[in-house]
Write a structure and sequence with these properties.
With about 425 residues, the protein is α/β, with parallel strands linked by helices. The protein folds into two domains: about 130 residues, P-loop containing nucleotide triphosphate hydrolases (Rossmann fold); about 270 residues, no CATH class. The protein is built from 17 helices and 14 strands. The chain has a nine-stranded mixed β-sheet with strand order 6-8-7-9-10-11-12-14-13, sandwiched between helices. Helix 9 packs across helix 15 and helix 13 packs across helix 14. The longest helix has 20 residues. The two termini are about 35 Å apart.
């Protein structure tokens, strides 16, 4: 079953029109292969899998790849190569460069599930020839579309100013469901909660753990699994490598290495602090989030309803980060802000022109009010817009914008 993902398709089409090479990169099971296979291409195209040893042999030499494509694609090489899991092919960035330099009408669209080696090699050898697009699991609106297209159509009619009272209750129900089971497409396509959990468990054990075994030493396996569980318990919190090392039993350096591994494999996202006064801002400690909440909850072994758990606020904050990542430009930076005297704002977005502040409150707000941490930060950092993401209130109050959690995607930065 294929359900189009409009925003991603637009990004791919724009990249395809301006660059010879487009790379889709993201975690396992987020839908990259499905996207590749369902692109609307007018040119002749061929689909290849980088994990296939025969494909790897074809791309060992540019001359071999050229001959293969002349026979199987088009003699003039005026077409499109779709190369799934391209990171398994040795020296692939050099081969892609040689092919696209020699044949300007050839377009190549690749996908990859790990950026451990890809991004650096791509940026070095394909500068000016490539557009890298991050593919995340489904956004909340995409999740709605997977559940009920008529409800999704209704959701698209809501706008930035829609008040909570007229929002269909099913939207709120599916947000709670999304916060528990996340946006991995295979799980999203199933309505039964037990089936969702079973699928998430299979994805975790079959894909995540299998992939990391290539990088985690056997003697570190127990400590690595502990590290994953600890990280899942710490979403939205600043993490200390010393504490992670002590709790997991892994040496400090290995904790650093495995954190880097998890981020490069798109399992976790680490957020750095924003610097103003370097003596006041906490400089070194990063905050940790998971790139999919269903994956986080299967690692944490908890699918209780949100009103029955004490981490619902952290889950909601993680969700807000994921929604923000999907609406900001790829070049924008995201930080958190916290000083030693306790002043804190959850997220600062810097799009290289303006800065935006996001504070997250998993609660129903009874009245509009200003929040001191945001108003003080507006003066310090010259914030263009500030947002208070909450459960029920959609309103403006002076410079602060109150937005319901299910409407983050509708935010338009001024």
């Amino acid at each position: 079953m294929y359900i189009p993902r409009k925003l991603l398709m637009e990004q791919i089409e724009n990249a395809f029109a301006s660059m010879p090479i487009t790379i889709l990169i993201g975690a396992r099971q987020v839908g990259k292969t499905t996207l590749l296979k369902n692109l609307h291409l007018s040119q002749k195209h061929i689909y290849l899998i980088g994990q296939d040893p025969e494909t790897a042999l074809i791309f060992e030499k540019a001359s071999t790849a050229e001959n293969y494509l002349r026979i199987n694609l088009q003699k003039e090489l005026n077409g499109v190569v779709l190369l799934d899991e391209f990171q398994f092919i040795n020296n692939i960035s050099t081969i892609l460069k040689l092919l696209t330099d020699s044949f300007p009408n050839l377009k190549i669209i690749c996908s990859g599930s790990s950026s451990l080696d890809i991004i650096q090699k791509v940026e070095e050898s394909l500068a000016g020839r490539v557009r890298v697009i991050n593919v995340f699991s489904l956004s909340f609106s995409e999740y709605l579309k997977f559940q009920d297209e008529s409800l999704f159509d209704l959701y698209t009619k809501y706008d930035y100013n829609t008040v909570d009272e007229i929002v269909d209750s099913r939207v709120k129900y599916f947000l709670d469901e999304y916060l528990l089971y996340g946006g991995l497409p295979r799980a999203a396509l199933n309505s039964d909660s037990k089936t969702k959990i079973t699928l998430l468990n299979e994805i975790y054990k079959t894909y995540l753990l299998r992939d990391v075994r290539n990088y985690v030493k056997n003697e570190d396996a127990v400590g690595f699994n502990k590290l994953l569980i600890i990280l899942a318990s710490q979403i939205g919190n600043m993490i200390s490598i010393n504490e992670l090392s002590s709790a997991s039993g892994l040496p400090y350096r290995k904790c650093e290495d495995y954190l880097f591994l998890l981020e490069q494999m798109f399992i976790v996202k680490l957020i750095e602090p924003y610097f103003t006064n370097k003596r006041k801002v906490i400089r070194k400690m990063k905050k940790v989030y998971f790139t999919d909440l269903g994956l986080r909850n299967i690692i944490f072994s908890n699918f209780n309803e949100l009103n029955m758990r004490n981490d619902s606020g952290a889950i909601f904050e993680n969700y807000v980060l994921l929604e923000i990542l999907k609406i900001i430009p790829s070049y924008a930076k995201i930080y958190y802000y916290r000083t030693k005297d306790g002043s804190e704002v959850d997220f600062i977005i810097d799009d290289l022109k303006n800065k935006y502040a996001f504070e997250v409150k998993y609660k129903r707000l009874m009245k509009k009010k200003l929040f001191k941490n945001i108003t003080s930060l507006e003066e310090i950092l010259n914030i263009r817009q500030s947002f208070l993401i909450n459960i029920n209130m959609n309103s403006d109050f002076e410079k602060l914008n109150f937005i319901q959690g299910y409407f983050i995607e509708k935010i338009r930065f001024n």
